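Same chain as my last thread, 575 residues:
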Amino acid sequence: MTKKFKPSKMVNWFEPGMLFQTGLRSVVSGIFGNYADRRETEAALSPVSADEWNDYKDKYAGTDEIWIDYVGDTGDGFNSTFSIAKLVAKDELTVAYKNEPEVTLPRAKLLLFGGDQVYPTPAGGLYRQKFTIPFATAFPEKKDDSDRPHIYAIPGNHDWYDGLGGFLKLFCQQRRIGNWETKQHRSYFARPLPDNYWIWGTDIQLDEDIDKPQLDYFMDVAKTKMQEGSKVILITAEPAWIYKQLKKDDTSYDRFRFFLENYITLGPGRNHRVATIITGDLHHYSHYCTDNHHTEADHYFGSGGGGAFLHLSHNLPESLDEVKENLKLKKAFPDREKSYQLLAGNILFFYRNWYFSMLLGIIYCIFFWLLRSADANTGYQVFMEAKSASFWSFIPHVLRLLSIAPFLSLLSLAIIAGFWKFTDTTSPAKGVQWFGLLHGLIQCFSIYGGIWLFNRFPFPADVYGVILQMGLLLIGGGVFGGFLMGIYLLSSNLIFGNHIDEASSSLACEDYKCFLRLRINSDGLTVYPIGIKKVTKNWKVDSNDNSADNDAIIVSGYLPAIHLIEPPIFIKDKK
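reply #2:
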């Protein structure tokens, strides 16, 4: 059956159903990951033969030069995802850094995905809707092409929300996505590249330890497949080095460092070197490097701008002293000034996230109804007081009513506790929890304030008056409650540096996307960070055939303008 393809909008993370669905799947996937880890099954069923390793050497390492694209955190809104897909599919890209000479970069032979290839979860065919169709459409299959570029991917936490089932079907069964081919057998991989370089992609599951079969796989590669002193480009699913600095009690970097030291850089048969480390998870561009005149610099790249909502960059630490001495932020995209400007958009939270705001408005109405019906005599007296008394005179009457209405009292406490529980306590800054409690108290306080205010209006003293009053309370309460939420996210992020996810996802920003194009040859490794300030928002779907056997549709529109975020980074080999 032929269905019409409908381009996806950006995920609204504050839509109540989305919050419930994602939270539930997060819990389920955590249980599934602990008790039914599919990585062990895939390792047992997918051994890599000697012929395959020889094939990898011929196709990748047996060339003088290879170009590689890295895309992190894609598969969200169609505009942003398809803009990235069209760019990586183009035969060549011409880019420049500011007023410097332009450079022309050919299409990559390898397309690497760094985790979270679909948002919010893999359920309901969203891989096909949000990932496969955009990328297959951007680069339609050529039947006679004998040298198709290859795709490799590692999973992020969103890929794990179905226990990795969809990821394994899409990326680990040697399928074609347009004119790209998937080549891996497992959710992690190691492949040889020219000039004794290697690319390693790890699967860290849901921020857990790497499983034993995966460790054995990389140990075998390091000992038996790699020459002594090989150079590893490591792809991982989260910027553990940043989280080490930003989050208190974070242990992800300790596990990350253990893997580096025990499987790459130390020990007989694995005395290799880390050329660079690349990750996504934070949906912006960041580049940290050491400034050391005695040794070659270490480079850590964050490039999660493949299509998901923009993570604001002003919370990035200027230096990562907790990780390594003299490891500093060299470049971020968007820059700090622009990030602060975007953060201010949370003032319009009630408009950008009106589903959530309407939920708050409904809560206002529930309180209004319960307050009226809590006790016939006392409830009526409360509302009569509201018509003439000041707000501060109104409060004692409400407190008296709450003392005889336990359900209403418990609901008030639940509202306060709910907003308090929402507080992001990962920040090491002091006072975070108290600020969250203050937010909960103000939200609860505003509910009664709204009831007092709207009850002063001259509504008819009949059922129609009550309905009209509740309707206005629904709208007014939703707007004001949403406004308070936006002010909380804005002020909490500015004061404590927390709620990085929430203060960013509330904006659902499609713009400021990025990806990396890498070149490896006898000179070494060069990284070209490519940025997009504004994605194309007027893609036109010319063909709506979304039948099961047709992943590539017809879409027209102009490619977005691109630029180099910083000059090409040439990474010298650390001898």
